[in-house]
Amino acid sequence: MTESQIAHKRRHFSQKVQDIPSSGIRHFFELIANMDGCISLGVGEPDFVTPEQFTRAAFDSVRRGETHYTSNYGLPQLREAIAAHLDRLYGVRYDPRNEIIVTIGVSEALLLATHALLDPGDELLAPDPYYVAYLPCCVLAGGKFVTVPTHMENDFRVSAADLETAITPRTKAILLGYPSNPTGAQMTREDLAEIADLAARRDLVVISDEIYDRLSYGIEHTCFASLPGMKERTVLLGGFSKAYAMTGWRVGWVCAPSDILEAMMKIHQYIVMSAPTPSQYAALEALRSGEEHTQRFVAEFDARRRLIVAGLRDIGLTTFEPKGAFYAFPSVRSTGLSDMEFAERLLDEEKVAVIPGSAFGECGRGHVRMCYATPQPLIEEALERIGRFVRRL
Ligand code: PLP
What we know:
By secondary structure, the protein is α/β, with parallel strands linked by helices. It has 14 helices and twelve strands. It has a seven-stranded mixed beta sheet with strand order 2-8-7-6-5-3-4, with helices on both faces. Helix 5 packs parallel to helix 11, helix 6 crosses helix 7 and helix 6 packs across helix 10. The two termini are 41 Å apart. The mean pLDDT is 95. Pyridoxal-5'-phosphate (PLP) binds next to helix 6.
């Protein structure tokens, strides 16, 4: 393509698309795609294959001829199972008829929530570092993404007081994602109760991305909607990708009071219609019989978590103990390299892929994200390579 063709094409791009960055994670996926012998701690997904009985349920549904759209809300029996699941775990009650939509993962749910809530110029508050899709979803909805710093010294937890200082008359909602990608931080019930109080006082909606809710180590997960008075102002996002090893099936959920849910439904019905039908059957089976698998995954992630944190500390990298999800987020400042230089040189010299923390916001600068949803022997080998690399610097 000639330059004038590129310039001509660019004239057609919307300002919104030009305003959002490409994912810093994808850049690393592309770099490692054709690299032999590379150990990837980059991708944020379980290494486990989806349990056989979930897959069988999907195939059985297809063989029965269940190959049509489902209700826009999703399969009724799946919505009932999601409602029962949330009631069992957190005592929060959603009406499967008009308070739950089955979505194409939390990814779609994030897009629905931001588009249903934000007008141009409305502000969405989120702790920094943040998951890479949060800013683009906000900006594509026309909103302004306002970040609130969090720090390793405070276990990367956000305080209600810090959130409050960032509130303006344009603030409409707070977006929380705990357990956190990329830091592994988890909030206590007390932390969240203070934010609940703030949301009620300042009349804000809370979008709570709880995709890692089951992967919490040592701190009992609190569902934001279960806090007193919060169901009415919470948009709860959850899904199957992480706790059931189902990333490729693309299925999740959004739960909200019926008025907010209907606003999101207006978007979902036109852009998606319904989540893939076979995936919904697999998800239903996951809720019916998946608990033992989830428990097995969590126990294994916890063992890997301890392995990687101890290994990184031995190497001399200051590493906060992650309390949830499956990421370690060591500081690489002591090496004298920036997070980007560290990630690029580690990949180049030792073939270990990690993600520079600055891909997740300013407060991620100086850190790298390492996903430990990777078999233990590979984590051990990666730690050896990282140790060698750091000692050479
Ligand atoms: N939210 C967070 C915090 C994530 O880490 C991810 C995936 O990495 C998602 C949402 C998207 O998940 P899904 O596969 O359900 O679209």
